[in-house]
Known about the structure:
The protein contains 11 helices and 14 strands. By secondary structure, the chain is α/β, with parallel strands linked by helices. It has one domain: TIM Barrel (Alpha-Beta Barrel), CATH 3.20.20.70. The strands form 2 sheets. The chain has a 12-stranded mixed beta sheet with strand order 7-8-9-6-5-4-3-2-1-10-11-12. The two termini are 34 Å apart. S-adenosylmethionine (SAM) is lined by residues 28, 34-35, 72-73, 75, 101-103, 125, 164, 166, 193, 195-196, 198, 334-335, 339.
Amino acid sequence: MLQTELSPLIDKFGRTVNYLRLSVTDRCDFRCVYCMSEDMTFLPRQQLLTLEEMLFLSQAFVELGVNKIRLTGGEPLVRKNVQSLISNLGKLDGLDELLLTTNGSQLEHMSSQLADAGVSRINISIDSLCPERFTAITRTGKLEKVLKGIEAAQAAGIKRIKLNSVIVRGKNDDEIVPLVNFALEKGLDISFIEEMPMGDIGSRDRQHTMVTSEEIRAVINTAYSILPSTETSAGPSRYYRLTGGHSGGSNIRIGFISPNSHNFCDTCNRVRVTSEGRLLLCLGNENSVDLKAVIRRYPGDMDILKTTIVEAMAHKPERHYFYDDDKPQVVRMMNMTGG
Length: 339
Ligand code: SAM
Ligand code: SF4
């Protein structure tokens, strides 16, 4: 089918999709307790999209009106030769923002290349400031390396760096204020993400260890006054600002991502592509379209790929459902999803 002009990506609820989150790998050098099980099996490499296929696919999305792409994973920076994908994406006409979510472990040696390639915003995950606990939560990570990575990203001139923290009851719920203090000291925004019930991570019952945004705000309020901000990042984060009386010198934003306690689906502007090329229309639903099959069946055919993506929009659900009768219903792990 020859298709010269396709309309932008609009779903049946009138939402325009202009944001793609692309998982470049399901692998990771960490095994965070809320994201993976300890003995993860990763996808065989031939099942992953190649970096060239990822670029082709990204180009299709950009031609359909996507102007923002976030690379995620797994840990995006552990994929071999990912720098070549990043620098090619940085050159795509029509892409306004190239973003990255990372655990920070590779930033010490990769930050300058990322800045040179045009990565404008980086989210760095950090859940604890105690070295032993950091290693316990990530099962393999070293806090020192991530702290050096944060410094390197700042030194490389990446304009917007945000910290992301998942608070798990009994593991790091006493570090909420220290994490805010750290963000203030570094002059960085921080978002707290409610733990989502993605995949089977073992015996822990996540409904009991999940700490809601409301609880986290209450804890922050014991140390700081915070007020809702009207600013938005066109994402699920609801932002607050500290008001007066703090010693950090900068006025950072504190974001709350509350997939469990606050439904943000009515303004959803995003889709995800997994590292094996499944187009996920929603984080909290299993329906997907196999774009890898299209790319491999019709190599180089941009029109067919774009048509498939446009048609997939009809399957974007109205909202996410993480629980069904109190049972988690999404079987994908977060690293498979591209968090
Ligand atoms: N490896 C990178 C990192 O850790 O930032 C990128 C991928 S990770 C899946 C993206 C984000 O998802 C991280 O901030 C992580 O804390 C968060 N995450 C992972 N599993 C989660 C879960 N079950 N619930 C909520 N957030 C989760
Ligand atoms: Fe790896 Fe990120 Fe998942 Fe942690 S949250 S295991 S760093 S993908």
